[in-house]
């Protein structure tokens, strides 16, 4: 995790969460939950797992810093599945085709453009413009957003994760559009046909999550035999759940809600997950 600011008492690579009086570090890789203690002690410079409930202020701080961290690391352009149609003479038209045979749209009717296309023949989504689409040259290189039409949404070559009913993953290597299309296809996927602002919550969550924490950060929260969701510190969670999550799985994780604030989702406790380690400033 890239730190945007550091409290004097927080050693690198820890992140200050002032309202929790704690220095927090997000694991650089997914970890089996039975290895949490060892990971934080050895790979996180003597930390311990953060397994208690965040205050409202703390979870807000966490979300802001995660976004800043992603934006400091993440390329501003991400290919999505939209290309300019050619006519029978191979000349560009004003019609744009969505990937995976998802239809087409007239250039002037596409609601997601950041500006009117000129000679560009592809589109790339950007967090710099509220997840709208920049006209982009198909020969330029960008990371790209792949989609699978399968549920449950599972890991394969890439960690495909369900982001608000879309099974998505970002391929972190930059390539041109044709290569991006081919790579998605090799994984049984396709470039995401970004058709309307109704999908911006899925796109935003994927961009803020895919590169950094693969859809979820373990919150120290599990479902007990009574069906209650309790943190390892003993506190119960009742209100922060994503309303679309049916709570069928057994571990609680932090992720981005539709409004791109941090909320709670469920994942399988047998999966390897990102986690949070902490060091208390007064103990340094």
TrEMBL record:
Domain of life of the source: Eukaryota
PROSITE patterns xrefs: C_TYPE_LECTIN_2 (PS50041)
SMART domains: CLECT (SM00034)
C-type lectin domain span: 19-147, 163-278
Gene3D superfamilies for the chain: Mannose-Binding Protein A, subunit A
Name of the molecule in the record: C-type lectin domain-containing protein
Organism: Larinioides sclopetarius
């Amino acid at each position: 995790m890239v730190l945007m600011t550091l409290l004097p008492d927080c050693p690198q690579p820890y992140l200050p969460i002032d309202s929790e009086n704690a220095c927090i570090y997000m694991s650089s890789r997914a970890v089996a939950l039975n290895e949490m203690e060892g990971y934080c002690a050895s790979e996180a410079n003597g930390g311990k797992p953060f397994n208690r409930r965040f205050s409202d202020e703390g979870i807000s701080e966490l979300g802001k810093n995660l976004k800043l961290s992603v934006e400091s690391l993440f390329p501003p352009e991400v290919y999505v599945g939209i290309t300019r149609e050619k006519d029978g003479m191979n000349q560009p038209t004003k019609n744009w085709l969505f990937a995976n045979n998802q239809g087409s749209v007239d250039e002037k009717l596409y609601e997601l453009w950041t500006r009117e296309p000129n000679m560009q023949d592809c589109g790339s989504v950007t967090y710099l413009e509220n997840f709208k689409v920049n006209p982009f040259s198909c020969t330029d290189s960008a990371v790209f957003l792949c989609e699978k039409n399968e549920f449950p949404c599972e890991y394969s070559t890439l960690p495909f994760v369900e982001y608000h009913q879309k099974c998505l993953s970002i391929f972190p290597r930059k390539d041109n559009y044709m290569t991006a299309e081919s790579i998605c296809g090799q994984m049984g996927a396709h470039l995401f046909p970004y058709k309307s602002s109704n999908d911006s919550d899925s796109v935003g969550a994927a961009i803020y999550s895919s590169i950094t924490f693969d859809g979820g950060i373990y919150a120290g929260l599990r479902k007990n035999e009574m069906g209650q969701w309790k943190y390892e510190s003993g506190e119960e969670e009742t209100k922060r759940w994503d309303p679309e999550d049916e709570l069928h799985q057994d571990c609680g994780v932090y992720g981005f809600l539709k409004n791109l604030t941090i909320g709670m989702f469920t994942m399988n406790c047998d999966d390897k997950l990102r986690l949070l380690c902490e060091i208390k400033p007064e103990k340094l």
